[in-house]
Design goal:
The complex is a heterodimer of chains A (267) and B (270).
Chain A lengths: L1 H20 L1 H23 L7 H26 L1 H6 L3 H6 L4 H30 L10 H29 L3 H14 L11 H8 L4 H12 L7 H33 L8
Chain B lengths: L4 H18 L1 H25 L2 H7 L4 H23 L1 H8 L2 H5 L5 H7 L1 H24 L3 H32 L4 H14 L11 H7 L3 H13 L6 H36 L4
Helix pairs in contact in B: 1-8, 2-4, 4-8, 4-9, 4-12, 8-9, 9-12, 9-13, 12-13
Classes of the chains: A mainly alpha (267), B mainly alpha (270).
């Protein structure tokens, strides 16, 4: 276990050095997040009356954060292919780093970029439109939701990463899934407000539970299931998803060690 | 003998469609993108808010409003990606030096490269918008769709000069992708692709007036989505697209030609 932590720490330290050195990239990444966020949130507030806009902004900020986090997880997994193209992945694996560890350290770096981006995004929303009005009611729900969401993100990054390494998933498919999953799984909208058929689909996935917990804690939106069940599922469902991801990543890792990288089409 | 512009366009067509047919996921993406974007905005907007408030602010059908916006977004991205980012993309692939050795001028080549994707996207604009518009507003919108596609084409062509200037800026930055990442959403934001310029603060309105695509967005929206479009305003917007094209294209061409020579002298972007 200590060796695992040491390996993750060493990878994180190396990645953080690159992160800090690439100043232009860091600034650009945060500004880009802020701009795309503003671009998508502004049309949504057209559906609200003027007096409701602060509340609408809070909803939209949470929705965009979920959307962006899932996108970060998808691209963290998919970017393993870039490491193959750059000839880094083989070296990292030969030095003893496993795929689950690599996914975790890459996800943490991706999240640092995203958190910076989201902060700039919220500042720009405040400057252009106004201050979002949150309704902080339940810190336990927020904390449970955040923990569940992080496990979920790791699980998702792992599944996308493993399928990229095994089957050579196309970037277009990854991007489309980053749009469709949040839309159909209740990540960006409360389950209560969703059409019944879509709600049934969403409940069968691990995605909505941590989001429902966070929405309850930060916005006061009542979850579809009883609160206790929602809180329990917001950790259990992501844990199951992450376990599947772990099995897939371990299988991929063993496969790579035996046969080398066999991805048919890296595009 | 130096190849003519039309020869390069034909070569680009062959190259683009071979790649397009090979990459089936790209076809799926092209079909789904405008609908997914529209669905995302409408989904959140209608679940949290109400279309009634939308209509109070903008006298237009929200579905057609965002569908036409998404399609204009696609057309604008064609120009920005294929002209603005072509140099740095080729450098990343390692093919820039081969392109620089071509007998044809790089500017000619760059201006030919978006044509196939533009033709395909415009065809898609008509195919996508037609059934939805006819369903929402009736059969008489058929002509409006053809006009909207022409306006989108004009808007895209007006963006050529602007995209050349962006390409020049990227060359000056020595091929820094990070700058392009910022420029791309910034232009879309300022063009009012997803949020009407009329509702923006004054300082953003002023900046938006310098973007040729913002007039194309406005004109096509008025025509297809608004309840009672004013022909005078549509014509005024088309006129402004032409004025900005006349202004930007020569500046873009000059900037690009100058920087192309510079790149050829140095042998690359860095």
């Amino acid at each position: 276990m200590i060796k695992v932590i040491q390996r993750i720490y060493a990878t994180l330290r190396a990645e953080l050095k690159v992160f800090i050195r690439a100043k232009i990239r860091m600034i650009a990444s945060t500004l880009t997040t802020a701009l795309w966020g503003t671009l998508f949130i502004l049309p949504m507030i057209l559906f609200f009356k003027a007096s409701d806009i602060p509340v609408a902004l809070a909803y939209a900020v949470i929705a965009f954060t979920m959307f962006y986090l899932l996108s970060t997880a998808s691209w963290t997994g998919f970017n393993l292919r870039r490491r193959i193209m750059e000839g880094i992945l083989e070296n990292q694996l030969l030095h003893g780093l496993t795929l689950p560890e690599l996914t975790l350290s890459n996800l943490i770096i991706g999240l640092i970029y995203q958190i910076l981006g989201l902060l700039v995004f919220i500042v720009s929303i405040v400057l252009v439109v106004g201050i979002p009005q949150f309704n902080l009611g339940n810190i336990l729900a927020v904390l449970t939701g955040v923990i569940g969401l992080f496990i979920l993100m790791w699980g998702h990054a792992g599944i996308v990463g493993a399928s990229t390494l095994i089957a050579g998933t196309s970037g277009v498919i990854v991007e489309l899934s980053s749009w469709i999953i949040p839309l159909a799984s209740g990540m960006i909208a409360p389950l209560k407000g969703m059409p019944e058929m879509l709600r049934a689909v969403a409940l069968a996935t691990p995605f909505p539970y941590p989001c429902e917990a966070i929405r309850y804690g930060l916005l006061g939106v009542e979850p579809l299931l009883p609160l206790d069940t929602t809180l329990a599922l917001s950790v259990i469902a992501p844990l199951i998803y992450a376990s599947i991801s772990y099995i897939l990543l371990t299988y991929t890792y063993i496969r790579i060690k035996r046969r080398g990288i066999t991805t048919p089409a890296l595009r | 003998m130096k190849p003519r512009y039309i020869d390069i366009v034909i070569a680009e067509f062959k190259c683009f469609f071979t790649e397009f047919i090979r990459r089936k996921s790209l076809i799926i993406a092209l079909i789904l993108y405008p609908y997914i974007l529209t669905a995302l905005i409408l989904f959140i907007g209608t679940i949290f808010g109400s279309p009634r408030y939308f209509r109070e602010k903008i006298p237009a059908d929200p579905l057609l409003f965002f569908l036409s916006s998404s399609l204009t977004l696609l057309v604008s991205l064609v120009m920005l990606d294929d002209i603005g980012a072509r140099f740095i993309w080729e450098e990343q692939l390692g093919t820039l030096s081969y392109l620089m050795l071509m007998p044809a001028s790089m500017t000619k080549f760059i201006l030919a490269s978006p044509i196939p994707r533009l033709v395909l996207t415009l065809g898609w604009v008509m195919l996508t918008l037609a059934p939805t518009a006819i369903y929402v507003k009736g059969v008489e919108t058929g002509i409006a769709i053809i006009i909207v596609s022409s306006i989108a084409a004009l808007g895209a062509l007006s963006l050529m000069g602007f995209a050349l200037i962006i390409g020049g800026l990227l060359i000056l930055s020595k091929g820094e992708w990070a700058i392009y990442w910022i420029i791309r959403p910034l232009i879309l934001f300022l063009s009012g692709v997803l949020y009407p310029v009329a509702l923006m603060p004054l300082w953003l309105k002023v900046l938006s007036m310098t973007m040729p695509i913002s007039y194309a967005v406005e004109a096509s929206r008025m025509l297809i989505a608004y309840d009672n479009p004013e022909i005078k305003l549509i014509l005024l917007n088309i006129g402004l697209i032409l004025v900005l094209s006349i202004l930007y294209t020569p500046i873009g061409l000059k900037t690009y030609k100058y920087l192309e020579l510079k790149v050829k002298r140095v042998g690359g972007l860095k």
